[in-house]
Write a structure and sequence with these properties.
The chain is of the alpha/beta class and about 350 residues long. The chain has two domains: about 5-245, Aldolase class I (TIM Barrel); about 255-320. Helices cover about 40% and strands about 10% of the residues. The protein has helices spanning about 5-15, 65-75, 90-95, 105-120, 150-160, 185-195, 205-215, 235-245, 255-275, 275-290, 300-305, 310-320, and strands at about 25-30, 55-60, 80-85, 125-130, 165-170, 200, 220-225. A seven-stranded parallel beta sheet has the order 1-2-3-4-5-6-7. Helix 9 (about 255-275) runs antiparallel to helix 12. The protein is globular, with a radius of gyration of 20 Å. The protein starts with 6 loop residues before the first helix and ends in an 18-residue tail after the last helix. Bound molecules: flavin mononucleotide. The site of flavin mononucleotide has 22 residues, from strand 1. Flavin mononucleotide binds near residues 1, 28, 170 and 203.
Length: about 350
Amino acid sequence: MVGLTHFVVRKTLQEYLPPGRKALWPTEMLNSRRIPYQRAGQSIETRFDDFEAGLCPQLLGNEEGFIRDSISKLRDWGARAIDINMGCPVKRALRHNYGVALMGDPDYAAEITAIAVKYAGELPVSVKLRAAPPPGEARNDETPADPDPDFLKNFCLKIQAAGASWITLHPRTAAQRRKGTADWSQIASLKQVMSIPVIGNGDVQTLEDVERMFEQTGCDRIMIGRALLAKPWLLSEFGRRAPASGTFAAEDPIVSGASYGKFLSRVLELSREHYPEPLGVRRFRFLAYFGSPYLEYGHHFYSSLTSTDTYDGLSRRLLDFFGARFERPQKMASRTSLRY
Ligand SMILES: Cc1cc2nc3c(=O)[nH]c(=O)nc-3n(C[C@H](O)[C@H](O)[C@H](O)COP(=O)(O)O)c2cc1C
């Protein structure tokens, strides 16, 4: 996730994964036109480390040479899998004909997948994509409306035939961006035709949602985006409960803001260690923008963060809000409207 799943956040989140448990850790989307000219660690986006056993860089691209050179670098930097972005709806990606624009041409998308598979060698290649547009809705500015209800299935079957090892579906259309509700029924219908694993994504905020998504869609794995940035303990709760009982608590057992405060403190500590101040402060605020709506006084907390440009300033604001030992009784909701 752009601006969010950078090195420090990945490192902090991984601390919540119970021992012996595995997860895939996508990076921010990386532009294949830039990676070949970068050094490892030169920017926040190219900062990877040994702890990243499930590192899965996500590439934005559509040209063989750039994809080849990017994959070669990413492998050297520790990639364990390569994900191709076919879901990004921003204008810049559409202009270059990658991101969700690739969904406008299934054969072309399959060709890009096959190219990535060829150069990835032993590394698995996956594709992250969006929902099919409902009949009559254009996929992007250039593509015509597609009335074919089987579009998504046919698209994914081509991706599978091109050698993808799994796909991740965020079932919203490009036009929806992150608004409205993710249509999980599209995950379910995809699951019926695919032989490679399908990872379901969209609107999962609680353990109950995790269970519901598994039940309703039959998906093989789940990707959690925004909610994990507010409630990283979903990872440990899920990891601990899943094998024993097979069922999850209806609500997260931990809903105290103190847990969120501890998460932010750890991110801040690692940011100080690894990032120059202005960059680390900006990234920290962006992270808090997505998690703070879960707090009862999240708006107040978030706006306090916007009035400082230093790590010390951020520390003071965390202290003011959560207390030196996180003893202030800040309440946290288990879900929000996800309207951001
Ligand atoms: C700020 C932001 C940046 C994102 N960047 C990416 C990205 O680079 N690549 C990607 O595949 N999805 C990206 N996403 C989409 C998420 O991966 C995910 O599909 C979406 O938020 C729905 O899942 P959620 O409801 O669990 O958040 C981004 C989402 C947000 C909020």
